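Schema walk-through. Below, the input block comes first and the output block second. Nothing else is stored per chain. Lengths vary across the set, and this one has 421 residues.
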Amino acid sequence: MKNQKIVITVREGVKAFAETAVSLLSWFIGYPLTHIIKRDRNLTAVIIRSGSVFTDNSKYFFVYANEIKKADERVVLLTSDVHLQELITKAGAEAILHPTLRSLFTLLKCGNLVADNVVSHYYPLSQGATFVQLWHGAPLKHIELDLYRKRLEKLSHLPRLILRIQKKITGRHPTYDIVVATSQKFIQAAFRGCFKARRFIAAGYPRNDILFGWPEPNRIAWRLARINVDQKAIARVEKAKREGKTICLYAPTFRQSLSDPFSSAIDLSRLSEFARQNNIVIALKLHPVMHGRYEINQYPSLLEYDSLGDAYPLMAMCDILITDYSSIYFDYLLLDRPIIFFPYDLDSYLGVDRDMYFDYDNITPGIKCRTQQEMENCLKDIISKGFKDNYAEMRSKIKSFTHDHSDNQSCQRLIDDLRIQ
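--- output ---
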């Protein structure tokens, strides 16, 4: 675990240096070109997280934007993954390898730039485009500027000055043209403090559109949506549902200590046996850092979903969600199904990892379990009552706070907004 932390720290340092160097080149060479090359307002470039992970809000914006685009509109995905580019092309959409001369020209030419994560070292090339930040989660924990301010407070004057300069050069905390959220109340409570933006809009998250049903088969949106979905896991879940089994999704969040629930709070062998006895299949969606630590699939009633895979099609199939501090449950509220919270390390998590925007007990509409026995008892109780619990009213109340819309039109609302810019 300690060696893993050192590797991650070194990797982050190298990455920061490389981003700063590339950003300086972008400012000196690329930025002047933004005053020469005319923007095409009908061209939208979409950048996915890490360049190759096709998931989350950027994925589903790209999926549905390709379905509803007009004849004179182009939607282009920028990716560093050759295989993904081939899959996108085969599905009938357009993808460009990034970084290449063609992708850099696309950044200089596009009228809209859409991302759900940080776009830093190529930020200078986006000047003049409408920069849309979808982000990748309605925040329960502090994010972006709030984390940055907290980090600055811990530094002395010179390191703080150097960090400020580095972030300014890379465009790490820019002023976005549009930041997309799921509700106006969420914008006021959290988003205005953690992003700088000219406008915040409560259009809803594109990734949640898939929760309300798949696109029509064999259309472009259907072909694109299937990319990076763990098809083997989905097939196993479909088989289990046909057999009348309960499907439970367990999605624990990342911890700075790199610890995980299976090293201290959950016995996997016991969990699998419990699931078998109660006709349950438990699907585990783990953070990529946790992937490979345990041979999950050796346990008959447990299923490990691809850690980098798109879990939203899986989430729509699950009867119950178990999580701790992951904001995934905000999206799951749209399904109005029971949620069990397993904050076995709440005190230490709040002390070491992240501050929260809300009081944990007041914003989490589900029973709180601190031990595996409690969690198993809660699962049995919910199933025995026909997937009913005592938190339906609280779920409804929090959903009305976190979501202004409960439909599959989030991407459509955003595109309509961009078209009138």
